[in-house]
Amino acid sequence: MDDKQRQQLIERVAQEVMAKLRKPVADIRPPIGVCTGDYSKFPELAGQGVGAANPAAGGTSEGATGGGTGKANNEPVLSGIVTATRLQDAISASSAGGGAGVVTIGPDARLTPLANDFVREHPEKIRRGTGQTTTNSSQSSRGNAGGWLWWIDGRCPVVQSAVQQRRDQVRVMTSTSLTDVVRELATGLGNHSLAGGVLFVRSSSKAICYANRCDAVRAIVGTNRDTVDEGVRDLAANVLVIEYPHVGPKVMNAMLDRMMHGGGAGKVSPIVARDLSELKRL
Asked: For the whole model, what pTM was predicted?
């Protein structure tokens, strides 16, 4: 094939390609129907934070609540793992649906660190399972006028910042002796004048040993949010011991939030209660 034939072949191929490109690949059709955003008829999507309430279509906010029950004022109830994005989306959906722009966090919800930060920054937009805003949820859910006591066996700016953020819920113990601190906690928990206590210590060994010698105290060592969650859920823990030199601000705040929004209010699980009863006889 000489140069002239090669050039003609190239031009012919180019013409055919351009002719193909001028033809539409497929017909463009309008969408079928309109998405209402009501996912309440799809239970398999529950817990994924999809959809929103559509009062005009008779829908509920069940799809947007992650398995919770929507309230009459389009107030979503979030359960499961709750991220900051889920909180923001649920608040926006509540406002768009004619609600108050408030979201309720269910009792079984587990907040990520960023979600905890969002809750602290916007307490007026968040309710706990009791329906109270976070600014007064601790007293309403516990029913104990004394709130929470805290104590530290030294000084730490991270601890000071954490308790300052919760100054409406906690008050400091002025005792200098660990024995006196445990005695004060045991007395308050025994007569139900306290919700619980938080001990910030360099080492948890003595604090845990002393505290759990008292019948009214159920103390746990907090290393992360999951350990506190387990202690609250299975042991109904009412005293949290934190080795503050080894805990950063995000983890500390996450543990405190979980403890103060659930600790001391429940009952020891039946299995754990049986095990404790058997061990007590030894």
From this structure: 0.51
